[in-house]
Design goal:
- The protein is mainly α.
- It is built from ten helices and no strands.
- It is globular and about 55 Å long.
């Protein structure tokens, strides 16, 4: 533990000397944070567009990028003004809360699809991509005929971890965009979330996972992302109000 603390302190000292603008919540810092956080979704896009496998991107870029983001946040907490740290924490927590709200909305559709109950319009297998995410990261083969039960437990668990990592990093990206959530309307988060979904539907995402782009699917998925955005914006605003910017500045 002492060795780890010593290494962290050395990194902090180096960054203070070389990258003073990054250890703040200036525009350069926000750009860096946004880019590092965005590697979570680019992990998936890299596979879609044949740039590299999702497995390679995860271990070569995504994990190091998230580690770098954590180091920046901790460094700012230890020696900086604390603004980057505050925003990263608020974004991560709000993003996780939003991901939970997003999934709670989708559960009735998933249960109806699995059990074949309820009206036909309610039956949508909205969680089917999760084990596929996990299998891609773990390098486990699958095809269009592979059912959810045929995926390994590790693929299911890894898929859920990746899903929540997206929610958390979307929250950090949102904070990098708005700067201070307490001064922004939560509706910006709704626009951010639905804009992301619109962009994803224009990628090979639907065809890659065999998703039928019906009107029903589009309405449900946009509603789910609007709920994600509302939860993200409201949670970030509440957390930012609970952790005032001025108070944090006065204590550093």
């Amino acid at each position: 533990m002492r060795v780890l603390i010593g290494i962290t302190e050395r990194l902090v000292n180096v960054m203070q000397k070389l990258f003073p603008a990054i250890l703040s919540w200036s525009l350069p810092a926000r750009v860096v944070v946004f880019v590092l956080a965005a590697t979570s979704i680019w992990c998936l896009l890299s596979e879609f567009y044949g740039l590299c496998t999702m497995r390679w991107f995860t271990f070569a870029i995504l994990i190091p990028a998230n580690a770098a983001l954590a180091v920046l946040a901790i460094a700012d907490w230890m020696r900086g003004p604390g603004l980057l740290w505050r925003s990263a924490v608020i974004g991560a927590v709000a993003g996780f809360i939003a991901a939970c709200a997003y999934d709670l909305f989708r559960i009735p559709f998933v249960v109806a699809a699995l059990d074949g109950v309820g009206p036909e319009w309610l039956r949508l297998p909205l969680f089917k991509v999760f084990p596929r995410f996990g299998a891609m990261i773990l390098g486990q083969p699958f095809d269009a005929a592979t059912t959810d039960s045929q995926f390994s437990l590790s693929a299911h668990l890894m898929g859920w971890v990746y899903h929540f990592s997206n929610g958390i990093t979307f929250g950090v990206m949102y904070m990098a965009l708005v700067g201070d959530a307490s001064r922004r309307s939560w509706l910006w988060a709704v626009l951010f979330a639905t804009g992301l979904e619109f962009a994803m539907l224009l990628t090979p995402y639907p065809s890659f996972f065999g998703i039928h782009m019906t009107t029903r699917f589009v309405i449900v998925t946009f509603t789910a992302h609007a709920i994600f955005g509302a939860a993200l914006g409201l949670a970030a605003k509440w957390l930012a109000d609970m952790w005032p910017l001025e108070r944090r500045l006065l204590t550093t």
